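Q: What would this complex look like in 3D?
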Amino acid sequence: MTISARLPHDSAEAHVTGFARYTDDVPTPKNCLHLAFGTSRIARGRLEGLEVEQVRKAPGVQTVLTKDDFQHIPDCAPAAHDEPLLATRAISYTGQPLFLVIAETHLRARAAAHLGTANIIEERPILTVEDALAAETWFDSGPRTYTRGTPQHIIQNAPHRLEGRLELGGQEHFYLEGQTALALPQDNGDMRIICSSQHPSEIQHKVAHALGVPMHAVQVEVRRMGGAFGGKESQGNALAIACAIAAQRTGRPCKMRYDRDDDFMITGKRHDIRIDYEVGFTPDGKIEALLFKHYLRCGWSQDLSLPVADRAMLHADNAYFIPHMEITSYRLRTNIQSATAFRGFGGPQGMAGIERVMDHIAHHLGKDPLEVRQANFYKKGQTTHYGQKIDEFALEELVPTLAATADYTDRRAAIAAWNAEQKILKRGIALTPVKFGISFTLTHLNQAGALVHVYQDGSVMLNHGGTEMGQGLFQKVAQVAAHRFGLPLERVKITATDTAKVPNTSATAASSGSDLNGMAVAIACDKIKAAIAAWIAPLHQAVPEDVTFKETRVIVGATSYSWEDAIAQAYQARVPLSATGFYKTPSIAWDRNKGQGRPFYYFAYGAACTEVVVDTLTGENRILRTDILHDVGQSLNPALDIGQIEGGYVQGAGWLTMEELVWDDKGVLKTHAPSTYKIPATNDTPEIFNVHLWDGANTEDTIYRSKAVGEPPFMLGISAFLALSDTVASCGSSYPALNAPATPERLLMTMRGMQT
Amino acid sequence: MTTVAFSLNGKRRLIDCEPTQTLLDWLREEEGLTGTKEGCNEGDCGACTVMVQDKNGARALNACILFLPQIDGHAVTTVEGLRAPDGQLHPAQEALIAHHGSQCGFCTPGVAMSMATAHLNEATDHKDQLAGNLCRCTGYAPILKAAKTIEGKPAPEHLATPALLAATSETHLRSSDEIAEWYLENPTGTLIAGGTDVGLWVTKEFRALGDVAFIGQADDLREIRISDTEIWIGACATIADLRRALRPHHAHFADMLKRYGSEQVRNAATIGGNIANGSPIGDSPPALIALGATLHLRRGDQRRSMPLESFFIEYGKQDRSLGEFVEAVTFARQADDLCVYKVSKRFDQDISSVCGAINIKRENGIITSARIAFGGMAGIPKCAASVETALIDQPWDELTFTRAAKIFAENFSPMTDHRASAEYRLACAENMLLRFFAEKSGQLTDLRAVVT
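A: Here is my prediction, written as structure tokens for the whole assembly.
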């Protein structure tokens, strides 16, 4: 049984020995050139001229490309064609590439890039939500609204009414491996790209477009990424295009790797958001009507902001039935890095908004927030604000189970006693649920392909459209293939994602990797099995249905072949031993304009309970204990799933508590390296960290009834934020209205603003 | 160019290099040893961690800001050399696999090297040992589990007996006298001790350093001498050395130093560099000022001393002439009344928003002396003179401290930047004084001591 086995990551040994090869580790031909961008130091203005003579003269520089070297400047955008490789006329953010240095070494390219200067006529940058609203600079031709019922009317007449505002900061992906691409020119002007991307097909598409060749002339390969988290869905396009263009022009291999500071300055991050809310509710805390306004700073280009903002709207309910609801979403264009995909893809922002509302209502009524949450939980058969029926609602049992195992009620009482006694160190606790919709909201992306070969010696080669960024997708899918054939895992060779093997793939995103690719691989394996069965059954007066594949044997009636013998004979009998598999998610239908339909195949559920302690003198804080119960359906690999949950929680808590992006009033990002942007380190993890999987199979027919796990656990981190808020609440009588990231400073200042 | 001799994964190497070429660059670009990763190129993420052994033992260091002459004569182990020659995985590698300690794997070589070095040194403070290795995937739980499980396992033989060589580069200055002579002749040259600051001049600012000399092997300045009356700290003592030496004498200070950079940074950074670079924060200077430390400077054969606080004139300007260098810092032996409080966005490896050092002595309920110094509150590490005055000769009680805390604003008008606002910095300074009183009064003030 390879399904549900707690196997290590397929590359675990290669990781620990240093032999796992990332893009920058691939040996390059001796004549390889290295690239670096010269970037804008101004956030907004008109480009009047570039002075790059010093750059050209710098040691090791081969050539410098500016906009004047292009008849048509290549576009790097995933959808909207609004991201020129190099700025042409409009300067849109600090960090925007202006020219491309091509040099003998990486260091020389970087050093030279700093020698260029730009003549820019500065304009006042649009930086804040207020700036953008005043200037009406937005995408999607204005705000988008989803409405159910008559919320305005109901709120007016509700027994209780509250309004408030929540501001959540953005988040840098901080994948440990920075963006990297390598272009290797081939015969006939073809181009081979090796890069660190979640979306090889898009790289292929964009490179082909930039080179003016059909997609068949470009091959893209990705073996693994050193972390991605959404940051390599579209943000690697510029590097691959730059390398391809430079390789085409010089005829030499070209590589580009952003130095960490460049990576921060050039690439997009998670959308920050301001959420304004107005809620009407009953005396027992049940929401009658709710109005949300979402203000997202999308940065200078559209990138993936529309679906991100949509997903925030689709998660504005989280786990709660809200009979009357309206969400208006503003997708604001601002002169900063273009915000992009990041684990959860807007879901975390939307979900944090409703969790804040729950907390606020509980505080207002003097109730335990968990009680208010449970009072508002969906019941099976109800529909969401976008019309999707809730067929399964694991939280109904999952949350009480977690509350019991985490000893929530008793600890809450113990904390209250502690806070009454202690002057300086205060504690707080929160238990929050997650309900996360699984599928791309753009329906056509919910498809995947696979290619499986069985060679005549019985070894199996596996390929599919998903990419490996650390999540263990390759191992999970290999487990599916091995299980399908009844083989031990080592018979299955995992190979790099390759656009020449499986075409037209979707990004490995939306947590969909194992759902889509696992199914496609299963289908491919089944085709090969069917071909073998169709050949072997008649030899034994049996029907194909009687042929089984297990324990490295092919069994037909009373006869049992070793796998090797069966395959060798099948080959000689001219049985096809290679197949493609194709899968598309069933049952989904979504009308984005109406905001109605079934965008998600199913929901993944989970809940976390976090306890924190805060120093009221400085706001410094620490997570004392976290308990998580999370639903992955029937796990394909519990070890990998728990890894996703633990890591997702810490990353989510990092977003809301310590990771702070600071731009100055000219739009310059001041936190552009790990020296100034702090992701969680070892001492930021919970002192006690209990993580368990919810025991339950997916009610939908997914691969072995498993559920997606990439993004949902990220939102478990909301419990850390609300535990901090709970602690602040113990310092006074008013509602804390804490914003994120809840840094020590923000906590202290919020405590100081409390009424006592 | 200079010539450097070292052993790399057990093999003797003799190479010609530019003295400011980093070990990471050499490993990856020239040796094709790409297991050691570049994550940030500034010593903040630990993906490039290697093990360096010399006569003083084994240290984890960041290869991205380690210049090749700094490993001259030493034994370097990279992740490719962590396995035994017979291919047997190191216990750290086995444990990382068994406990699912790698996901994307990019931080893993550095994690494995930090873990193996800690294991060799029999260190079990795993969170502190690994705080300099950022991981974005796992949330650290499986990594910490893996580290725990290898406690007490025997160290592999190939790491226990490193092959040390004689250093060959002429860029080393091996004593205070040699430094004095060289610096007098090359007053615009650059002295490199640990390189945790100078490294970034090269990797991030592309500065051509001109004449450089390495002083990390100046043994007389690496010493920390503790007599009955005085503690003498040579300029080349590392922060790790300092932390070990101070623990029995000034526990609070030593404890704060575990938050100075990371294990990799503390193993390289020196107290001399920490003072001489004139950082407005520095972390060590406020504590040393509060201890009443004296700074000893040397230029050629001339030596002079001054109270440490006098060395810092204004932001970017110190009382040091061309060719003059920090030789040592000293302070008198005293009862340990010092508390050092560091506030930053992250507990580990972060630059302080505010670092406060408070050293208040009392007799019979009356405050007899008060030394209070702060980093992060001005362009330089600075004393809170008015607060000190307000405390001295006053009764040791809450009222005294509450009153004194209110006058920090007389001494400081801190700046607002991406780390903290002026308002927050001032609030922290005030509250640190209150925390000092609360702590000395036996109240619970230590966040890290709380268990649920």
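A: To summarize the key features: Residues 513-539 of chain A form the longest helix (27 residues). The mean pLDDT of chain A is 97.
Q: Very helpful, thank you.
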